[in-house]
Amino acid sequence: MENRKLASTGAVIPVIGQGTWNMEDDDEAASIAALRAGLDLGMTHIDTAELYGRGKVESLVGRAIAGRRDEVFLVSKVMPSNASRSGTIKACERSLKYLGTDRLDLYLLHWPGSYPLADTLEAFEELRAAGKTRHFGVSNFDVPDLEEALSIVGEGRIACNQILYHLAERRIEHRVMPFCERHDIPIVGYSPFGAGSFVSQRSAGHGVLVEIAGAHGATARQVALRFLVRKPGLFAIPKASKVAHVKDNAGAGDLELNPDEIGRIDAAFPAGRPGSGIPMM
Q1: What is the number of helices (H) and of strands (E) in the chain?
Q2: DSSP character for 190?
Q3: Residues with catalytic function
Q4: 73-78 and 45-47 strand pairing
Q5: Distance, CA of 201 to CA of 127 (rounded, Å)
Q6: Which candidate, 188, 243, 273, 194, places its Cα nearest to that of 16?
Q7: For 233-280, how does the pLDDT look when each residue is reduced to its tens digit (9 = 90+)?
Q8: Which of these, 219, 225, 247, lies nearest to 237 by C-alpha position?
Q9: Distance (Å, rounded) from C-alpha 74 to C-alpha 107?
Q10: Residue 161 contacts by C-beta under 8 Å, 6 or more apart in sequence?
C-alpha cells in the first residue's frame, strides 16, 4: 500500500483509506471484519463522523480498532448544527466516547454551516491544544469557504478538504482542486465509486477501465480508484462492508498507471463544466 505525507500535518497515511458512511445499515459483524481486514492490508486511515448513524458508526469503528488504536489514523467530523465553539468541543468529546479513544488524529467540520467559522476553528485549536485531536480540517468546502478558513488560521493549518470525487463527478478539478494544490491542502475524496452508482458495464468508459485493468491484472474498480489518487495531494476513502470488497480496494494502493493510461481515462470521463457550488452527496 502506497503511503504519502498529508502535507502540513507531517502524518504519513495510505493513499487508499476506509470510509464508513451508511455503515449503520450494513451487517455489523461483517463491517467490523472488513475494517480489521483493511488495517491488515495497510488501509490504516479510517474516516467516520458523528452524523453516521448518530454515533452508531463511531461505536462500530471503536470496536473494530479496539487493541489496534495506535495503528490507525482516525478521523471524525462535527455536524454544522453542533459547530459552535462550545458545541464543537462537546461533539468531539462524544465522538471520543463512542470511539473508545482519548484522541482523534484529525477532526473535520462536515460542511459549512450557520455558526461563525472562526468559532469552530477556535474550538479545533482548543481541542488540539488539549490533545484531543492532533490536526483539524474541513469537508465539502468550496473556494470561498477555504479562503475564509485560511484567513482565520493561516497557511499550513488546514489538514485537508474532504470532498465528493469520482469518475462521473470531477467538477472539483476546475476550481477547488487547483486552489487546494496552490495552498498545499490535500483532497480526500469520498464516495469514489459514486455511492453505489459505479460506471455502467455497458458504457464505453467501462470498456476503457476493463482494458487497462487487463494490462495490469487488476479490476476496473481498482483502475478507477487509482486514477482518483493519481496526484500527490489526492487520497480516497472508499467504504466497504465486506472483506472481499476491502481487498479489491486495497489492490489499488500499489497499482501504477502510466501517463497514456491516465490520459485515456481522463478522456473517457471528462470533468464537465465548472458550474456553481460544489457537489455533495
Answers
A1: 10, 9
A2: E
A3: 52
A4: parallel
A5: 46
A6: 188
A7: 999 999 999 999 999 999 999 999 999 999 999 999 998 888 778 888
A8: 225
A9: 9
A10: 137, 138, 139, 141, 146, 176, 180, 185, 186, 187, 188
Query: What digits encode the pLDDT tens for the residues 75-125?
Result: 999 999 999 999 999 999 999 999 999 999 999 999 999 999 999 999 999
CB atoms within 10 A of CB 162: 28
Other CB atoms within 10 A of residue 70 CB: 7
List phi, psi (to 5°) of 210. -65, -40
Closest Cα to residue 175, out of 191, 160, 187?
187
Assigned C-alpha cell, 100: 473508545
Measured CA distances, 161 to 29, 89, 112, 142, 212 (Å) = 31, 20, 12, 9, 30
Q: Please identify which residue in the block is written with the cell numbers 491544544.
A: 129
The CA–CA distances, whole Å, from 69 to 18, 146, 263 equal 15, 31, 39
User: 168, 171, 187, 166: which is closest to 277 by C-alpha?
Assistant: 171
For the question of whether the overall pTM of this predicted structure is more than 0.90, the answer is yes
Pairing label, strands 104-109, 3-5: unpaired
DSSP character at residue 185: -
User: Position of cell 468559532?
Assistant: 119
Going by C-beta distance under 8 Å and a sequence separation of 6 or more, which residues neighbour residue 215? 261
Q: Residue 277, SS3?
A: coil
Q: What is the distance between the alpha carbons of residues 279 and 281, in angstroms, rounded to a whole number?
A: 7
